[in-house]
Amino acid sequence: RARNAAHRQDDVEFAFEIGSGLLTEVRRLQSLLAERDKAIQDMKEEKDDLERTVENLRTALRQQEQSAEKYKEENWNLEVTLQEIRVQLNESQGNVQRLEGEHKRLTKQLNQSRDAAEQHKNEAERQKVAYDELKAKHETDV
Description:
- The protein is about 100% helix and about 0% strand.
- The protein has 1 helix and no strands.
- The protein has one helix spanning about 1-140.
- The longest helix is centred in the middle third of the chain and has 140 residues, at about 1-140.
- It is rod-shaped, with a radius of gyration of 59 Å.
- It comes from Gloeophyllum trabeum (strain ATCC 11539 / FP-39264 / Madison 617).
- InterPro entries: Nuclear_Pos-Cytoskel_Interact, PKHA4-7_TBCA.
């Protein structure tokens, strides 16, 4: 019995050591599982954050594409307007040149008319003087 009791005591200690080792290992594995679960949860949260970020970026990209289209349309309209204004500018410059030519012609004609008027005035004065002389001579003769 004593011999069996010693073996049993050894068996109990061995079983206790195995149990303690297993318990320690189970606790260690549970701790690792908890860390893994926490890491997985953190990854899920990061994934959710990334998905939200990606969706926000997609929304921002769509808005920028819409803005780009709007600005392209506005730019096109401005280009068309610019071309129309350039055509009007060319027409206006042509009109200005034509009117300047007309102005020069009219100024020349005005100067010619003034010269002619001055000549007529001088001629009228000369004839008046001649008339007055002729009248005075006629009165003297009469």
